[in-house]
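Human:
Focus on the backbone:
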Amino acid sequence: MSIEFHYVKIKAVMKEIRTRFAPSPTGLLHVGGVYTALFSYSFAKKNKGKFILRIEDTDMKRHVVGAEKVITDGLKWLGLNYDEGPYHQSERLKEYQQYAQQLIDKKLAYEKEGAIWFKVPSGKTSWHDLVRGKIEFENSQIKDFVILKSDKYPSFNFAVTIDDWLMKISPVIRAEEHISNTPRQIMIYQALEVEIPQFAHLPLLRNPDHSKISKRKDPVAISWYKEQGYLPEALINFLCLLGWSHPKGKDIFSIEEFIQNFSFERISKSAPIFDFKKLDWINGLYIRQKKDAELLKLLKPFTPKGMNDDLIGKTIPLIKERLVKLSDYSALVDFLVKQPEIDKKLLFKKAEKDKDLIKKQLEVILKELEEVKWEASKLETLFRKIAQTQNFHLGKFFMAVRIILTGKIATPPLFETMEVLGEKVTKQRLEKALKSLK
């Protein structure tokens, strides 16, 4: 009885873990923001807590119409579903004004030029960061700062502190660029005499040249990744690996497995490299793991005009191993619904330099195709026989046919392509090529 009572007592006093993602509505959902959202979400889920979405919209100059929908749609696409929110700072101005006045009343803040300024106390401010250990600042290095602007809107540091306190957020998980903001926020917590949350500052994502990822020159919008045909589960898997390592050294795992194994101790302090080659590799692997029926649905937004479900379905076994992104699909199969232009320079460079030889090859092919059963295996047997009996160079012979039928030098397997293209269209393209060479 005493053991059970002890357990219930401990459970009763345990605090609910509440984490948050707090983007500004500036027009895009930033991949760096999603990185911190993922870690916040996962820590909350591991501890059966709540993941909160808060829109930090007090900077009206940066506010973009429709930006909030971009944020919520992006989180939904990625499967990072929030439990509460979205809360809006613009709807909470009275709270910020109320607590700013409290600090004035306590003589811990003062008015100047219509704004309210926080008095920085003497001494030091330190905290134990869940990722970086002890961090300490000399307060003398920090000047008095504005907490309520003259337009009665809060400063970033003040709004964040009040919100995180009232929403009972702990730990506060965010990027390392906020480390310099943390002492100011801790000072405000102390001035208000309220509990200070834990903090975890994640490393910033970097390019391969170690430069900071920038929205001016790098693809940072989550919508871009969706448009390019990255799968959400592949992108999530990739982001999990940035600055965090699986205890078994695995590269491929679900978000559920990430949540189960998540710990701040496994997060590196050094900046992880956003390696597109690895993302592409992971994405291609996830694509190949899809069942053909599921992949057909995913490919629909990326198909060339004129392709129906039946034709898409026929192509999937041919191109599945070649796909890195869903957007690769169109370029691989567009020749099926679009008559390719024969690039004679390409043909004579990659196939045969002798135009008369290619004409002879086409004449023999068209004659022999009259008797063959239209199946990939039968077509391959026939073409190999033609090459042998006519003494054609096998590789150049096949390449000539490939270029004529598709306009490309790299395509799905030639004879499977011919089977899907169909007997009528294949012969029409071969005849057209023969006429153009005469």
User: Anything to note?
Assistant: The radius of gyration is 31 Å. Residues 222-334 form a domain with the Glutamyl-tRNA Synthetase; domain 2 fold (CATH 1.10.1160.10).
